[in-house]
């Protein structure tokens, strides 16, 4: 029982990190990033490959964060030159390009065979059954740290500018500030957080393959953000808990009600998500848990 | 910051409590009887495995019913808990944790893709669970560190070299290779190439294609341009349907060698008789001849209204094998003891049996048994892998016709 | 020597010539008006001068330097700032934060500084807060300091935009229809502030439809029609110009 | 690489491109008029394909009547979602409409799989051999598809240029504010827009179902190339959408000869990036003036 709950919480927390990064990019900067899973993948593979080469996990995680953030730099430069509408498709294309590369460059990534036997976090520290608990604790610490960081950033003068960009980019230029610079940094920060999430996931699952990094993951994070409410960290947290909780919790619905086949259950699950998404946007634009965004001082 | 964290903590507590309540409910509802074997079915109901997973689950249900109707294995009835892994490793990890932690299963059967097999193995090993799968990745063998995993599907290496063997026996000179880009099929393709070239041949074209396209004509043209006399096509049904359609329309003459789970009656139904005429389909065994298969297929048709594919047959065998192992160990045996019995009831000189009741009766009379299943003879190697005989079928006028049986062997 | 000088500027999109060989000068500390009918090219001229739209030919000079190729933000940093016809407030930020954001070259805008020089940022914030308070006092925005900018009235938004410009300490401000959609009381107030700013030495260029109001405050006026400057000089002279009367609906002013 | 394979790859690209031109046109019209990238486009196609299969199986009609049936069903579904969702979101942000359309996509697809399952289906059409012109292969089926797509495109361009509703549509696509100011009643235009784009997606899906196989992810998987094609041609430009998607498809097919199939998507994407960097408004888009 506890083991399963721990697993669910781990999965929630990994999604939460991803959502935090995207909230910084979209919720606070207005960047329509549809390639979040690409940064997640880069983080996973960087950390996994380094750790398999014998690099200590803390260092490989740091490298994963750094590389994911760096990969956002050229992307930002290209996409921001093109203007807002194109960022979505450029980032989506980027994440697919990353996945194709992971599939094809077998010398590095073993392609579709995936990477088995990735060193597990805290392996050998305690008895195997307890490592999950340690991983959960680590993730809680990381999440609190990251969300504290995000909170700190959006309350800073830097945060003021990115929110101003979200509200009106043209006016920010009229104030003598270069929006591209701020947007690139916000994109990189969010990407770095996604990379860290990827690294942590790799050392938790111990097996990764390119099929895990499909655009659906990006869409799930968007859904979590929209459900919870984009403009506040509280909304982000609640949206993620709600989405992952529902995806996982729906397993029990079938155990309890019965009479629905597995295929139909899978369809129902997606249907509920789709309709919930529509209804939230129609009837509760600020999200289920969001209030209208306001900076407090 | 205190605000959001408070909320997230409350969220955790609320959802945690809710889950705990549900877990307690499902736990208490099922735990009255002690003489139960809790069996988990982890199938790829959605995702790429969608065309196969639901039928695998049907097969498992048929086998479970068969065992339970016969009074259970060593008196223990199977209680089935089914989960969808969505053909995704990370969803599978959660699903398998749920099966272990909430449903307290003692074995997990029906795992289909290697990615799920590899991702869940550390967890099932840690929990000392028997797992039975259809994974073909060679890493499954090396990662099977506790010997708890049983591969009911021949590995890619064995499959690939069997394809090459058949191609050679049929006298083909210029084979080409086309494969769907996933670990199973790329593995098959590579082993085909290796074992063909090991005996001094050359492969005229080697193309790995991306799935989910609406046309594979460019890839196919590239292969056909090299004028092969046979194409080893490692594909699933949707892409195979498109490729064969486009090949048929191209009018170029050439044969196909394909895995049995793709080249079967469903493919004929999708494409018609003309496009599928002469396809060489390779399966684990002379399946249609085995009594186990015949009985299973009849039961399966009643439920699913179609012929079972090889994965369904393998899933059926998983449950029967497990049941016989339990029967052989006795009602109070633990999982590890049951696991230890699996090799001895599937191979050796015991009485050949083809159904659970047959095997059970023999075991009760103190005789050793050798279960020959619906999917293959089921002889396991030392890493838990099957090395089946392969049935070579030709599709003639829409029907699979058995031409020969060749022994599978692990390539050096 | 003029502070801002626009020389022989031509600009357009597609086949349409929005600006055709336009010349315009604003001297140091001068107050200049720009009038013209809808679509005459006034806003486009602003956009070319401030770098939002590239000119297809011609040069823009500011404070003695050629700024034709510079990006918007570089021009602003040199002291050339503008407002927009439709107010572009940061609607989800408070009035206070709108003004704080406007302050140039803040240390706290650097991510590294958030970690390494937090004390410095705190000092800077205190200094800027004082400055923002001055600006709010000057523009009479004290009462709404905590409101979200999106909730302000049209006139207050115009004041806020002016306030943001003041945070920049510019040499020249270009105001695009500052009185449009503003109630008469506020217009009066805005007028006074603009004159006061001009007296402090800031050059001002104003686009306005309200000719009476404009003629009252500016000593010099340009008139545009269909992408060209058709007249310039004292308000009386420009308004009496036949070409201008012709452009304004056959002489009815 | 010899020119024959390049020619064959290009022909294949043209066929796929023309087929996808129908939904791509729907994307670009919706973008121009309702101002958002409609992510449900792909699943409207899927719906069209499944409806064709279903009406063939249950009503036993010919392929042609089934395709018409599919077009009407998708048109109705598209209208339904306009009245329920997109009409109410007209005043909201582009991203809100985009996310809502993802919700619509999920709802449509899961409804299909709830009833039809995950397994593949096929549209029953006879297989015909290709005509071979000295190594260049032409498929009769492809020619039918090409003709159908072309006819549909000609019809829609006629509608847009010759009928009052079509002219209103183009006016709104050009400048929504101006159109509203000059008194164009947009409700009728919207109804027309959504039924037209729905029917086009349905037709595209049905044709794709005939050419390939009918699976639940049929349309969803094509969203990326379709959006890329639309952007390549210039968002909001109907001619651009058609030429953009055809160019994109040809580029993809020819690229797979040189770069290998897995990099097909990447390569096509790089082309898109280059075009955009050189000409941000796309091949046929007009630069937008900031005010």
UniProtKB/TrEMBL annotation, chain A:
UniProt GO molecular function: branched-chain amino acid transmembrane transporter activity
UniProt keyword annotation of Nucleus present: no
One Pfam family matching this protein: BPD_transp_2
Transmembrane segments: 6-24, 31-51, 57-79, 133-150, 187-207, 219-247, 268-285
Primary location class: membrane
Keyword Cell membrane: yes
Name of the protein: Branched-chain amino acid ABC transporter permease
A cellular component annotation (GO) from this entry: plasma membrane
Swiss-Prot/TrEMBL keywords: Cell membrane, Membrane, Transmembrane, Transmembrane helix
InterPro entries named in the record: ABC_transp_permease, LivM-like
Membrane topology annotation: Multi-pass membrane protein
Location of the protein in the cell: Cell membrane
Automatic annotation (TrEMBL), chain B:
CDD domains: PBP1_ABC_ligand_binding-like
BP GO annotations: amino acid transport
Signal peptide limits: 1-20
Keyword set, alphabetical order: Amino-acid transport, Signal, Transport
PROSITE patterns in the cross-refs: TAT (PS51318)
Any Pfam family the entry gives: Peripla_BP_6
SUPFAM superfamilies linked: Periplasmic binding protein-like I (SSF53822)
Annotated ranges, domain Leucine-binding protein: 38-339
Similarity-based family: Belongs to the leucine-binding protein family.
Record protein name field: Amino acid ABC transporter substrate-binding protein
Taxonomic source organism: Microvirga brassicacearum
Automatic annotation (TrEMBL), chain C:
Pfam families cross-referenced by the UniProt entry: ABC_tran, BCA_ABC_TP_C
GO CC term (a single one): plasma membrane
Domain ABC transporter: 4-251
Entry keyword annotation includes Metal-binding: no
Keyword tags: ATP-binding, Nucleotide-binding, Transport
UniProt GO molecular function: ATP binding; ATP hydrolysis activity
Coiled coil: none
Domain of life assignment: Bacteria
Family the entry assigns: Belongs to the ABC transporter superfamily.
Protein name, entry field: ABC transporter ATP-binding protein
UniProtKB/TrEMBL annotation, chain D:
PANTHER family referenced in this protein's UniProt entry, alphabetically: BRANCHED-CHAIN AMINO ACID TRANSPORT SYSTEM PERMEASE PROTEIN LIVH, HIGH-AFFINITY BRANCHED-CHAIN AMINO ACID TRANSPORT SYSTEM PERMEASE PROTEIN LIVH
Membrane topology recorded in Swiss-Prot or TrEMBL: Multi-pass membrane protein
InterPro entries registered for this protein in UniProt: ABC_transp_permease, BCAA_transport_permease
Family: Belongs to the binding-protein-dependent transport system permease family. LivHM subfamily.
Stretches that traverse the bilayer: 12-37, 57-86, 98-117, 143-162, 191-214, 226-251, 263-282
GO CC aspect terms: plasma membrane
GO molecular function: L-isoleucine transmembrane transporter activity; L-leucine transmembrane transporter activity; L-phenylalanine transmembrane transporter activity; L-valine transmembrane transporter activity
Record keywords: Amino-acid transport, Cell inner membrane, Cell membrane, Membrane, Transmembrane, Transmembrane helix, Transport
UniProt protein name: Branched-chain amino acid ABC transporter permease
Main location: membrane
Locations listed in the record: Cell membrane
Signal sequence extent: none
Natural source organism: Microvirga brassicacearum
GO-annotated biological processes: D-alanine transmembrane transport; L-alanine transport; L-isoleucine import across plasma membrane
